[in-house]
Amino acid sequence: MKIVISGLGIIGGSYAKAIKSKEPIELALECGAIDREGTAEDLRDADMLILGTYPKAAVEFIEKNGEYINKDCIVTDTCGIKSEICGNMVHLSEKFGFTFVGTHPMAGKEINGFSASDSELFQGASCIIVPCKARRKSVETVIEFVTSIGFTQTPIVSQLPHALACAYVLSPVCRNHKGFSAGSYRDVSRVAKINAELWTELFLENKAPLLSELDTLIDNLSRIRNNIANEDYQSLYRQLQAGRAVKEELNE
User: Edge to edge, what strands does the sheet with 3-6 contain?
Assistant: First the structure.
């Protein structure tokens, strides 16, 4: 397959490195992750176009270059939210004649950019496939592609931990952990090293589902807080034990 990738950040760059397997715009060329810098003309005979950019940039790229995309090309994205981008991409696919299949790669790091990309990033990771009106054959092609570079397929919610981590490290006592922190602090705070521009966009575009999850989290935290304030041993114990039971049930 001839594949075009728009956006060489951690996800787009990792796609490029994974596609090129173990082979070693400038850094990508130097390490052999891509063959050359692409042009709009390359879209005319591309089998697949991977949009590795922020959601709005992905839509803008198609609006600008959609006329060059051939009718047999499968366009897919890597965005962490799907509702808005799928609606826009279905409309653009009907306008320009290509096929769009949405994906959400459940992989990443707390750092970003091409230097953070890794050919092994997707090994054993989950990838959500969103057909977006595409035919079954096209969906199966995308499934075969993502599994060929290491993905499995298991849906999961990923945005709430990022909101939680940011709120956690904004505590005035956070800096007191330096030199004294245990693994639990590092685990909770890891993803707070966030790409603010990207995640602001993702949070706002996924507003309704994320608000629902945040309301649930706030309610659970409030119950813990009130049980502690009231020194209600039994209620606090039951709540903590219920959390442990869920974790054990999930085998994680």
Answer: 3-6, 48-51, 74-77, 99-106, 126-130
Provide, rounded to the nearest whole percent, the portion of the chain with pLDDT above 70. 92
Q: For 22-124, where are the E strands, in sequence order?
A: 48-51, 74-77, 99-106
| Most confident among 19-33, 41-55, 147-161, 188-202 (mean pLDDT) | 41-55
- Which residue in 72, 6, 20, 63 sits closest to 44, CA to CA? 72
Structure confidence at residue 21 as a pLDDT band (50, 70, 90): low
- Mean pLDDT computed over 78-94: 88
Please provide the DSSP assignment of 163-181 as one string.
HHHHHHHTSTTGGGGTTT-
Distance CA 167, CA 239 (A): 22
Beta bridge partners of 130: 102
Residues paired with residue 126 on neighbouring β-strands, in sequence order: 106, 152
Residue-level pLDDT at 154: 46
String of DSSP letters for 172-216:
TTGGGGTTT--HHHHHHHGGGS--HHHHHHHHHHTHHHHHHHHHH
Mean pLDDT of the region 28-33: 83
On whether the CB atoms of residues 127 and 152 are closer than 8 A, the answer is yes
- What amino acid occupies position 18? A
